[in-house]
Amino acid sequence: EDSLTKTFSFKTRSSAPARSPICFPATFNWIGDGSFSRSRSVLDVLRELDADILALQDVKAEEEKDMKPLSDLARALDMNYVFADSWAPEYGNAILSRWPIKRWKVQKICDDKDFRNVVKATIEVPWSGELSVYCTQLDHLDEEWRMKQVLAIIESNDEPHILAGGLNSLDSSDYSAERWHTLVKVSEIMPLVCVSLQQFIHS
């Protein structure tokens, strides 16, 4: 069967983690109580997932080092990749694909004031044709701005596509009351920190 659902579903094995690896630290290992120990690499986990397409954020890729460590990861997984600097040089978003990447481009999400970007890759899917995949990391402090970012991405494309990445849609139901209270407190001071960081980056 070659429906989009079948084509793009992740092929997981019983030992594979249930959540997306892009949320995890560089090495980890799940324990029965939901905690983890740092004993397995991202490469191990991605090999277990055996996904056809991956969208990664906060990726390090140094041009003077032949785009390592991203290029090493892609080579080990036997995947093609594209990379776009985002909030700082040598860090950004990446799309890896087991299938050929025909075209790709990078665009600001909303306007030049938005230091975040989205990378779009047009992938040639066997027996199905071309598919556009967007990878980004949206704002995590301002819900109104985050929704503007989502709408800007949607409006920029009218063909079949997948939007993946750090969508940063925080909800109190995902956290304990204590943890949510801490996040709210942090969010109250973070905008000032982010403004200072953006001014430093663009200076």
Automatic annotation (TrEMBL):
InterPro entries: Endo/exonu/phosph_ase_sf (IPR036691), Endo/exonuclease/phosphatase (IPR005135), GPI-anchor_lipid_remodeler (IPR051916). Gene3D superfamilies: Endonuclease/exonuclease/phosphatase. Residues 38-174 form the Endonuclease/exonuclease/phosphatase domain. It holds the Pfam family Exo_endo_phos. It comes from the Eukaryota. One of its GO terms (biological process) is GPI anchor biosynthetic process. GO terms for molecular function: catalytic activity. GO terms for cellular component: endoplasmic reticulum; membrane. This is Endonuclease/exonuclease/phosphatase domain-containing protein. It comes from Genlisea aurea.
